[in-house]
Amino acid sequence: MSGNSDPLSPRAKLAVTAGKAAAAVSRAAGRGSGSVIGGRVALKLDPDLLARLATHLDVILVSATNGKTTTTRLIAEALRAAGPVVSNALGANMPAGITSALAGGSDAKFAVIEVDEKYLSGVARDTDPKCIALLNLSRDQLDRAAETRMMAEHWREGLAGSKAVVVANADDPLVVWAASSSPNVLWVAAGQMWKDDAWSCPSCGGVMQRPGDDWFCGDCGFRRPTPTWALSGDHVLDPHGSAWPIHLQLPGRANKANAASSAAVAAVFGVPPQVALERMYQVQAVAGRYDVVQFMQRDLRLLLAKNPAGWLETFSLIDPPPTPVILSVNARGADGTDTSWLWDVDYTRLTGHPIFVLGDRKLDLAVRLEVANQQFQVCENLDQAVQMAPPGRIEVIANYTAFQDLRRRVGN
Predict the structure, then answer these.
(1) CA 81, CA 347: separation in Å to the nearest integer?
(2) Which H or E run includes 309?
(3) Please, what sign has the CA dihedral across residues 172, 164, 226, 274?
(4) What are the pLDDT digits (tens) for 145-200?
(5) Model pTM above 0.85
(6) Rounded to an integer, what distance in angstroms lies between the CA atom of residue 369 and that of residue 179?
């Protein structure tokens, strides 16, 4: 089956209809968007539905430990300059959620799809993507995800011989090693603030040398590739050396890096950097992240950070002391139940901030802050933390389910 004119089979149509009905029931029951249950029902009725839905689309897959949802949104905005886009904008990034998203995109030209790291190879096999963006790999959800070297190997095997253009971060050795099995790679110098998961060579296990922004293995010669695209301050450098200004409403260096990778992806489909970057300015928040909300007559900025690399990037963009900071950590299934990662976060970066601690695992976080010699108070809930916080905008940093809890409390 190929081309827009080929209709879905009766079985596939039934699967799509049943999935949408299941999603509607889930929404009506107040159980979220329904995209996951809808996709599960649809795939149960037609296990090949994801592949069928992807046949008429130019598919772009985005995978990483951090920045998937934001980069997916930026790419989708950029590609709308070239045609209609379907995307799993709310971050349901496993096969069921992806199937649900594509089922709503019958008139689209492009599908921009965020994919959980564990599922990248399988989704790529099913959707025959034209482009795959790989941003970074670091520790996350330690109880369920493979360690990073194993994840990189999984990607490497899945990408071997892929026809897709792979847009990959030249500054992350794990990403470079994973992408190097692909015959068609565009390297982006997007930077890497968190380096603690890539001190040993993914190719041979030797010690990685890191002079300045460069890196290489002294044992086997594995080294940083020459980038085609680069983030340089507030500009994206294209393959011709032209510098294009980045104007984002989203804060922080990490989002400029996401924009650089997004511009490289858009160019694969003929959207010029200037057009792509101008369109990215439209993005103000992503699934509630970076939103500034009013709660109890105070301004709260909501920031998501799920793992050591994400917390490091987030600390770099918050307002300086004495801005109050609320930290909330859970350890439910979607977060990963192992909180040992808290010990890898450098909480001394919060020195001078009044800190308020919430969440299911607030005591784990309190112990970590105590060891880091931080001044903090443990609170029962968001209301108490906001009441106790000194004047000024409050920075609220939370991991995944804690972030969802906070959004519900503030009505966002």
Answers:
(1) 42
(2) helix 308-315
(3) negative
(4) 558 889 999 999 999 989 999 999 999 999 999 999 999 999 999 999 989 888 89
(5) yes
(6) 37
